[in-house]
Amino acid sequence: MNKAITDGLQLMPPAFAEGLNVWSSGNGTPGSDTYDGAANAVFVAADADFGGCLEMQKTGNTQKLRFMGQTPLEPGCYLQIKVRIKAISGALPAVRVAGWAAAAGGSHISGVTEFAPQVTLSTYGEVVEVTGIVGSGSRGGVDMPWGRTAAYGHFGLDLTGANGGVVRIDDIEITDITSAFLRDMLSVVDVTDYGAVGDGSTDCTAAFEAADAAAAGRRILVPAGDFHLASTVSLSHEAVFEGTVSMPASQMLLLTKNFDFPSYAAAFGDEELGFKKAFQALLNNVDHESLDLMGRKITVTAPLDMQAAVPNKTSYATRRIIRNGQLEAANSAAWDTDVVTSQATYSPSRSTRLTNVANIANIKVGSLVEGAGVGREIYVKSKNNGAGELTLTAPLFDAAGTQNFTFRDFKYLLDFSGFSALSKFGMEGIEFQCNSRCSALRLAPSGSVFSLDGCFFSRPKDRGITSTGTGCQGLLVDNCQFLSAEDPLDVEDRVSIGLNVNANDAKLRSNRATKFRHFALLAGANNTVTGNHFFQGDNVANGVRSAGLVLAANNCTTTVSDNYIDNCFIEWTNERDPTPDFTTGFSFSALSVTANVFLSGDVAPWFSYIVIKPYGSGHYLNGLSVTGNKFRSLNGSIDRAERVDTSFSDLDFSRSNDVVFEGNMYHNVSTHSANPLRIRHNQSSASSSWAIRANGQLPFQGYARFVDSVVPQGPVRTGGNSNRYSMPYCDTQQGANNDEIRLRWQEALKGEVQVLLRMDA
């Protein structure tokens, strides 16, 4: 690095042969005395050692020689002043490089060192080279550190010691030696200085470790080249990669000071590989709890097998996070779904097994299972090729016998299914840009509390989040966006699903999902679904709608509150029961639907917002609370807000228990259901038997099983208008639909009463 070349700065003073009028006997400032015509100085044209040189006699205590030109000094620049001198006669003086420090305005900078160490001349005729280094920083080897305010200097030499001696001085040289300080100035240690060779084959592990040990707080520079690391390397200092590294998949690069995705992408020269190696380091004590993608987009050409990236880990249970970036699926055949059709046998007695599976070797673990009697989101959990058996994530409701099944292995941007268990892992602020080419995220087969916060699942081809086991236990999905690739399609043509959960304790909070087949299928219990907005409409007049939220366990113990459920519905089933007819248990129980906004438009009149679908006979309601909801239909009214899908069976309403259905608001909904149901009945003609009908207003068209109260609204009279003060008794479950009661009076009476009916015990 030479400032005179790179910046056009003039550093070298003129030769003495050009005249002594620019050489001062003072500080070199304008107006100071020069050696032009001085009695003690003369230019010698031919010297055996120097050629042309200055001959000078020392006459003062400190004989100064300064170039009067302004030699610039910039921050970060280091100059070397070199003087070659020899004694000719008389007393032998000492000599030192010296200067006068000036600020930008020309004022003197006081308090700084303005001379270098001196050298005493000891022999006549011996050429002695004296140097001094001046610069802005107080670094090792700098004789005159002048700080950042120094703008220029007047440089030369001092003669000290006894007077009277005569010396000859060669032309003074000033050169830029910043390059000698550059590495130290930038706090960089170069791995090549410690034996690293960037040829792609030499093992540089020891060199990297030595550079790290010597860094002492400075950065480590990996210059251009391909540096092979045969073993794990942990760097405790920040590393800068101009070149790249290569290493076996089983070995790790642990960048403890600059642990982020851009550093790993630079280190390996490849985004996908850099991401894998960064994830490997994250799970191997890199001294960071999270991997920051720093807002970068990673183009992914094939499914990322996250366990394969960490060969030394098959399970992990320490909190780790990946945050702040985007994964984008590139156009590639690697995303194509593998589809296998095979014959297999199912028995309810082995409810999660398929046996005698043909072509089992070609069926991938994690594949979706389809076939007659198979519920939604059933996956292959494991397989035994030798025994010809597949283990499924859940039972099948009506598949006994032998049939053909279809197995679809979707491809995912991030696939954690290679881990046996993964717990306390999370992703924050990640966008899965699937581009209609692939699915987004597949969880490990077991584990707990996988969390997703502020993530975008953009245009997944098949699935947003898939659980093929119990790795969804305690799943947390908060503030995420699920953006369907099937937005232009009619509802009946959509197949993609936002997410599924098999285990318990899922929390879906404040998410938004657009036009999937289903937003979420929850097959476990103790779920919380709150503050979400999911919508699934289309432009078809009187069109069908699909379930936004599917609860696939009848004893679901789930709270659904404060959601915006738009052009879809809640479907509650027992489709994972291998013996779906009710024999024992709690049946359809423990569901709370509270303070939601239900909205629909252009739907068929039979559409409803809450649908229960029993897959077997004998089931009943045994704990359901539907309160404070707003039901509204646009562009036409619907018959009722809730119904039973009787495709397989109806509910047994003679056993309904603990049903609360009140405080709801209905707009363009013909039937306003409630339980308890308040009915005002006017008996205009005297009768001893008053028929009071619920008219389908009990939830799900349930039975009128109990009467909480009968309150006359005014006097009860005989046909002759005489007041009577007797009380009736009630016959319940009357009429063809069991939704009427009879008030039995002692005599024929007329009047008006308010009755509070219940469908439940």
Automatic annotation (TrEMBL):
InterPro entries: Pectin_lyas_fold, Pectin_lyase_fold/virulence. This is Right-handed parallel beta-helix repeat-containing protein. It comes from the Bacteria.
